[in-house]
Amino acid sequence: MIKIDHVSKSYDGGATCAVRDLTLEIRSGEIFGLLGPNGAGKSTLLNMLAGVLAPTSGTIELDGVNVMTDPLAAKRNLCFVSDSPDHLLRLKGHEFLRFIADVYEVPDAVRGPRIEELAHEYGMEGELDNQIQSYSHGMRQKMMIMGALLPDPDVWILDEPMTGLDPKASWLLKQSMRRHADAGKTVLFSTHVLDVAEKVVDRVGVIAHGELLFVGTVDEMREHFRSNGSLEEMFLELTSENSPFAHAAELAGEKDGDASASTEAR
Amino acid sequence: MARTVAQGFSWKQFRVMLRVVTKGEQHLDSTGMGMGDDGTEKRHGFWGSLGAGARKVAMGFLFLLLAAMFFMMGCMLGEAGVTPYQAFSLCVVSLVGLTALTGLYQAVNILYFVRDLGYYLTLPISATTIMWAKLAHFLGMSLFGDLIILPVGLGCLFSVGAAPGTWAAMTLAFVLAAVAVNLALVIVCVPIMRFSRFAHDKDLFSRVFGGLIIVLALAIGVGSQFAFQGDGLVSLASGAGGLLSGGVPAVVMGLLCPPSLLARPVVEGDALAVLGGLLGMLASVAVYAAVLSAVARRWYFEGVQALQGAGGKRGRRVQGAELTQATRTRGAFAANLSRDWKMMARVPVFFNQFVLSSLLMPLYFIVIAVVSGAVGVSQATDAGMDPSALLEMARSLTALLTFDSPALAWCAMGVLFFGLFLGFSAYSFTMGVSRDGEDFFFLRGLPMNWSAYLAAKFVSPFALSTVPMLVLIVVALVVLGVPAAAGAYLVAFYLGATATLGLLSLGLGARFPRLTWDNEAQLVKGGGATLMVFAGLLVGVVVMVLPALALLAGVLWNVLAVPVALGLALAIFVAECALLAWWVLGPCARSLSRRER
User: Fold this and answer.
1) Chain B interface includes A111 (CB < 8 A)
2) Which residue of B has its CA nearest to A87?
3) pLDDT tens digits for B60-98?
4) Over A140-151, what HEC string results?
5) Residues of chain B where predicted confidence (pLDDT) is lower than 50
6) Radius of gyration (Cα) for chain A, nearest Å?
7) Is residue B293 domain-shared with residue B410, that is, in the same domain?
8) ipTM exceeds 0.90, yes or no
9) Do B50 and B132 share a domain, yes or no?
10) Which domain holds residue B371?
11) What total number of domains does chain B contain?
12) How far is CA B318 from CA A5, A25, B416, in A?
């Protein structure tokens, strides 16, 4: 379970607010999709969950472990795929996976078969002895996903994981996410591809300007908008200038100075 | 393959491109040119501008310091009877030599290994225009660096009391020579990049040329040890003058730098000869520019296209037992050490800067020792002495190195100075964390043991920089017959000096890492890196000042007995090591675990 409690993140001494007083609870056993336009604060939020960024205020707990006070314990229980797959490019594929397995302390008996299985599933068996820098963007993305899935922690946090994946790899990842959630564990991912979100997620959260504008199922979203339109149409309306939440967001912004504003899921 | 249609030059597009190249281009491999601007993202606000400003001021100061040093050298040459023409010849020969060895690497980086080049290919701009815009940028940058050599000639003019007109003529002639040699270099570079497979492998290219530059730097270091002794510099200057006087060397120099052949009338002639010489130089530069335009029109675009298509080597299929073996479990320290070592050895710039230079460093001392030894033996033979008697004499002196002898304390002081000298290479520790760049933030998302991470960052450079020198020191101690106890003390003292230097440098690098670079060369070249090298000296002073004071208290001020001073100095190093190790593995590791972009 992921518990985000009144989390804010600001830069430049508060001049830029990337995430504003956000409260959200993602339950074990569900796939949660985070939607939002570019610059909405999705990556900032996910980076805070992964312990890469520290919240300016508020607390984050992963399965009851506070990310800020006990980051190592929290990170052992999560895997994070960032929005860029260009990491450790001079390592070969198997060297990268070995490094990840060592850091997560994956036992010998598990890592060997698991690496073979993942490499086979993602069609990377023939590439493991090549340096990651020689991979295409999609192959690098596959390698990052393999690295994330190798230790198989309870919480998966994936930032735009489908970007660059071929249809088979994309389908595989969605299957893996479903299996993981069905096993009572947690998957949180961000995406721009609304069709993906519509088909995979149990609940969605829509974020814009660092504020969470909506949380619920896709059906609840439709009900809210009394519309049979696609998720894309609802998303555009929700994040537009004339958003039904725009006024609330402005009010929240005005109150930001006294830190009393809250944008809990409405 | 169908040939590409030759593309002409457009002045309007040139100006647009030059602006883009100057302001916004990212290099796959930077060249280390410029005034401390390493191309990394600037920090905003007061501290950001203060940092950039301070870096520029420090680089300017360093530039002026070197210029003043060369000017003094020129004055010395003038006073030793070297003519201004010979001094100018020395400048030009040095310029051609340095450009020939390092310029090709820089030119290829500027003209070909540029991330934005693939984008330029999609635009309706002629390749010749793109190349000239890049070349103008390159010439501007390299001319600035080349000017550092000119004060040798100007110093000589100063010492002979030359007229201001001669100063202006020599300056102009040098600038034209610098432009010509750079143009000549690019004329060679364009066909190489078009037809050479070697040049298309950026890693191999960087490794070979980077290695060449390191070897050159060491050779200059070794050479300078002898050039500054006796009349070595005067001989160099007259030799350089001789090179331009005639024969095959003059032809080679004339091809590489045509203005060099007209240097004598410009520096020594009357007004008419000076004017004629300068016009001749200008004409030769114009001819080279025309030749380059023709060559570029033909091959630059094709070279760029060939580079875009170059691919990497493929590995084998690893599976089954082999894969299991390749991915077996390691501890946190071993995992980090292995990752760090692979990244360092596989990035050509890091390999050259941190691995190759460290391994070649002992060679520097071996060459000096061998040449000095050979000179000593030769002089001893000339004086009718048996060379082996020299060694015996040295051994009889080293036999006196006991713990109550001030000589051992002075030897320890020598070790300290040697350790201080090694401060120049301490930036391999300082750069330890910075080498990870954006990868650092990937590691931040993992359950990383940051103490193990920093311990691994210490071991690689320590093994590379300290161990080869340690072997050399032990060999020297054995050859010179230093008593075992005194030798062990000096070795322990050396290890203490290098370990504290490394730990403090690593800790400082961990507290103030530079992680936002676009390419590896930005980190190890350029003004920021140059300043970092000199900052290593300051770090060395900080860790060595207390042991030095303890030694001086024994041998200079007689406040302590010599054995006490020796013991205290070593104890201080041990205490410093323990304190610094705690600081690096504790507070520094914790600061990394919280570091954000």
Assistant:
1) yes
2) B439
3) 887 888 889 999 989 988 888 888 998 998 899 888 888
4) HHHHHHHHHHCC
5) 1-2, 28-42
6) 19
7) no
8) no
9) yes
10) 348-593
11) 2
12) 46, 43, 50
